[in-house]
Amino acid sequence: MQFIDLAEVEVESGSGGDGMVAFRREKYVPAGGPAGGNGGKGGSVLFTAVENLQTLLDFRYNRRFKAENGTKGGSKNCTGASGEDLIVEVPCGTIIYDTENDEILVDLVEPGQTFKIVTGGKGGLGNAHFLSNSNRAPEYALPGQPPQQKRIRLELKLLAEVGIIGLPNAGKSTLISVVSAARPKVADYPFTTLVPNLGVVRKPSGDGTLFADIPGLIEGASEGAGLGHDFLRHIERTRVLLHLVEATSEDPIGAYETIQQELIAYNDTLATRPQILALSKIDAVDDEEVAAIAQALSEVAQQQVFLISSATRTGLDPLLNQVWQQLDELAAQRAADKLALERAAFPVLK
């Protein structure tokens, strides 16, 4: 399945049905009067977030979405049928922009979250509506309102709690294939991963946590270089970044600093995102060299460096335990912040 995370589409609501001009002409109803019904309302176009989609692939082939028109009013005061609303499903994490002014219309994060993009036109009034003491036989009706049209841009940002980042060939895909059921393409050359890969990793409690393997970034990625430019946006929603540095790299310290600089250049808030640092592929380097690299890396990053080998599954349990601990601390902090906001909004009366 192709991974598509950007799309532009046109949406159009249904137009309202025209009002009807009609009069009652029945044998035993003298002076029946006007009996033209109102037109039906046009359908609206709504976008809703669903969990079973992970790409905007459908929007590559279908770029126009139109709701049904309302039908014309009928005789005997019959209102025309309303057009059916069109509900378009998108993956959770989809942001919808108005292309005219680049304004964010909605960020669909939660499953079932729905937003109306364009509203159907109202139906026109039939001539029965205009009956009055001064106008006993109106011979006119109103047309239905025209449809609304809008061109929108869809942008998908993956909803993963943990984002695995690093230079190309740092071992990101191998790691996610070992700790989850994801089966990304793995090879010993750079840029094996061309799209983000998602995998669910089980906690000891049995709960699942979504990991995202972000395609390898390179220097200048924040300015459009390499493959990472199109996928940096997916890091924004992650709560924890798992940064892999390849032990076999010619310059591990430079590799670490390159990624840090690109994160800051793309979005300076990423610099404050919790990061867990791991030295990967330690099975390919002797122990003394691994220890020296880890020591130097720890001094530069000012944090603990985990030593792992996805191929031999060395060091994965301590690394994942640190991930779970970090996520639990963040969850506790969010809960405390939420409680503090609630107490500030509704202080206890003494």
Can you describe this structure in just a few lines?
The protein is of the alpha/beta class and 350 residues long. The chain has helices spanning 58-61, 172-179, 252-266, 287-301, 316-345; strands at 6-12, 45-50, 64-66, 86-91, 94-98, 103-108, 114-118, 149-156, 162-165, 197-202, 208-213, 240-246, 275-280, 305-307.
Summing up helix and strand content along with how strands pair, one would put the structural category as alpha/beta
Low-confidence stretches: 184-194, 220-229
Reported for the largest beta sheet, the result is: 6 strands, mixed
Shape label: elongated
Strand order within the widest beta sheet: 10-11-9-12-13-14
User: How many strands appear in the DSSP assignment?
Assistant: 14
Order of helices and strands: EEHEEEEEEEHEEEHEHEH
How many DSSP H or I helices?
A: 5
User: What does the average pLDDT come to?
Assistant: 85
Radius of gyration: 29 Å
Strand fraction band?
Answer: 15-25%
User: Roughly how many Å apart are the termini?
Assistant: 60 Å
- Helix fraction, binned, reads 10-25%
